[in-house]
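hey so i finally got around to running the thing on that chain from the lab meeting. sorry it took forever, my laptop kept dying and i had to restart like 3 times. anyway pasting the input first so we r on the same page abt which one it is
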Amino acid sequence: MKKKLIRTSTIPASLETLLKGQLQMLSKYYNVLAVSSPGEEMKVLEKREGVRTIAIPMERRISLIKDFISLIRLIILFAKEKPDMVHSITPKAGLLSMLAAWITRVPVRMHTFTGLVFPTATGKMQKLLIMMDRLTCFCATHINPEGEGVKRDLVDYKITSKPLHIIANGNVNGIDLEYFDRTPEVMEKARSYREEGSFTFCFVGRMVKDKGINELVRSFLRLYQENGRVRLLLVGPFEKELDPVSPKVEEQILHHPEICFMGLQCDVRSFLAASDALVFPSYREGFPNVVIQAGAMGLPAIVTDINGCNEIVLPEQNGVVIPPKNEQALYEAMKYFVTHPEEVEKMAENARPLIASRYEQQRVWDALLAEYKSIIKK
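ok and heres what got predicted. didnt touch it at all, straight out
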């Protein structure tokens, strides 16, 4: 009989998007149950991955009453299902799942830290977030940082003294190189977004302050005034409630003639293929998939010196790394890309081979499966 595995996340998009294909792979070896908040993605997940799903509402923000209700529901679920292992991703699901699994004595309790919020928080909020992560680690039997930067922060802030194990080279799911490729179909779609003679920068992600969108737009406008043959593709949704960009920047995004706001897109390949470089000036990350995806599509990248980004991008090999929250450094890097086409071309040639050598999906899946088999057996 197969061992029972429960995978949890706060919102279903994390399981549906970040772990695409992984749950189906795991279902060959385990009885897999996916648990997350209600949403259409749960139906997609169940159909595509072929696993059971159960919706339990979980708030991304701190909400004591709602969080307590979610915890009770998880305790009831785990007591009923009696899983051999619970593996969580995302902060709130990690805290609630690990606590519920500890209370119900689930033998194997793993949490993957895909990103940390507390290093960029301050004051009482930082202390609260640190306490929550420490509780998550206390309840977990196995702790899996997504990359070296996340691992370093967990150690530096003394979040836990338990062993920290990075699976493969980091990243939760690896990259499907057959999908993220410049196929004829992708290139045909890319032509409609391409403008010959212009250098096109592409950003993929949420249009929020923490992604560096304010600095990105201002740097681009400065560069555009000096060199009119530049464009900026912005792929992703606005989030006005959590971390909005400035009203002026939002206005510029929506109305500037050379800023192409594409909104949320399920398939980003054609936008990457239509671009000359990725620019990703985020303040904090765990291990950003978009940087890996862009590299697989043959794009060099401008990224900030933060967790994940500084592991994926090797300076002068497949991109450049700049300080976070530094508008001047961002502008200079973007200008360098526009004015040094030969160097950019060399970085572009290196991009896909470097990603393939470290983050090919099957390698990540094999390493994850070996980890599961080892710890469940023990």
